[in-house]
UniProtKB/TrEMBL annotation:
The keyword Ligase applies. GO terms for molecular function: ligase activity; RNA endonuclease activity. PANTHER family: BLL1145 PROTEIN, CLEAVAGE AND POLYADENYLATION SPECIFICITY FACTOR FAMILY MEMBER. Keywords: Ligase. It comes from Paracoccus jeotgali. It comes from the Bacteria. InterPro entries: MBL, RibonucZ/Hydroxyglut_hydro, Xnuc_lig_assoc. This is DNA ligase-associated DEXH box helicase.
Length: 334
């Protein structure tokens, strides 16, 4: 009789029988290992959670201190039942990690969400040798080839210079994307204040506490400033804020949106985006296929995204690939 699979897709999430735990489960479970603190991977209500210390802190900020009955920071290799687990940087957001599971003589790396481009707001991706590599496929189509993020930020700064009478509102996910955009702005020479929607303040403050130099940040409120005072300024907010009256407090705003999906013009038009910024915290097609090639796993398991194209590419390369069909994951947190 063949040995059971080291990880099994279940309705709750990806399950490890030998360790009796789930990775990024979508429903409350007794024991969860979490790759990062985005809401489609990290949910409240589990009995016990193991994650990097930063992910645990971010979950507490987002969900409250009682988001789980028990927390365990990941430190080195840990034995859980008959499985050994370790956490390795994923390059996605602060605290993000790949989870390596060694069981039954098989090494599995669950990447969660990951990126291979430089991101000054988090630790870079670390290749982890494995027999089975579980990859996301958010941008798993050959058409997705993300530009240099510095050129996208230069577009924003050029627009600010050309339209000094207008405010520039940049839609960015509150955790990860916002801080990355801020760091990119600082790297490209923007030394002035950056104004933030209230939903971003606590998360940015935590990044600062962790040594991420975000510079001069201020709340985007009208308590101390008139509408005209925001002319020529950059304001960051969750994209949902643009659908409310909140955006009307700024002078003739240029609506921007930082997302890998801004490469799709139809999506930009649907959201009323005047200045799309193609900035993603996920691997694009070249980096996804490069990662599989470099790791050279015996099997590639593909999840949450364009599974079919990645499966087909692997087949053409003579590689074994399996779609997991896990539900509940967003294409890219917006």
């Amino acid at each position: 009789m063949s040995a059971p699979a080291p990880l099994i897709p279940r309705p709750e999430g990806l399950y490890c029988p030998s360790g009796d735990f789930y990775i990024d489960p979508q429903r409350p479970v007794p024991r969860a290992l979490i790759t990062h603190a985005h809401g489609d991977h990290a949910r409240a209500g589990h009995g016990a959670v193991m994650a990097t210390r930063q992910t645990l802190d971010l979950m507490a900020i987002r969900y409250g201190e009682d988001f789980t009955a028990s927390r365990q920071p990941a430190q080195g290799e840990t034995q859980i039942g008959d499985a050994r687990v370790s956490f390795h940087p994923a390059g996605h957001i602060l605290g993000s990690a790949q989870i390596a599971v060694h069981t039954q003589g098989v090494r599995v790396t669950v990447s969660g969400d990951y990126a291979r481009v430089a991101n000054p707001s988090c630790a870079p991706f670390e290749p982890v040798p494995c027999d089975i590599f579980v990859t996301e496929a958010t941008f798993g189509l050959p058409v997705f080839r993300h530009p240099d993020p510095a050129t996208e930020i230069d577009k924003l700064l050029d627009s600010v210079a050309r339209f000094p009478e207008r405010a520039h509102l940049v839609g960015a996910y509150a955790l990860g994307k916002a801080q990355r955009v801020i760091m990119l702005l600082r790297e490209r020479g923007w030394t002035g204040p950056i104004y933030l929607h209230g939903a971003m303040l606590a998360l940015c403050e935590y990044h600062i506490q962790q040594g991420v130099a975000l510079g001069d940040l201020r709340p985007a409120t009208t308590d101390q400033m008139r509408k005209a005072d925001f002319a020529g300024q950059i304001i960051l907010a969750p994209p949902s804020a643009f659908e409310a009256t909140w955006a009307q407090r700024f002078p003739d705003p240029v609506i921007c949106f930082a997302s890998g999906w801004m490469a799709v013009r139809a999506r930009a038009r649907q959201r009323g985006v005047e200045l799309p910024l193609v900035i993603s915290d996920h691997v694009d097609w070249p980096d996804l296929t490069r990662t599989i090639t470099e790791l050279d796993p015996a099997q590639t398991w593909v999840t949450h995204g364009r599974e079919d194209a990645v499966i087909r590419w692997c087949e053409l390369q003579g590689r074994v690939a399996i779609p997991l069909h896990l539900a509940g994951f967003e294409d890219e947190a917006e």
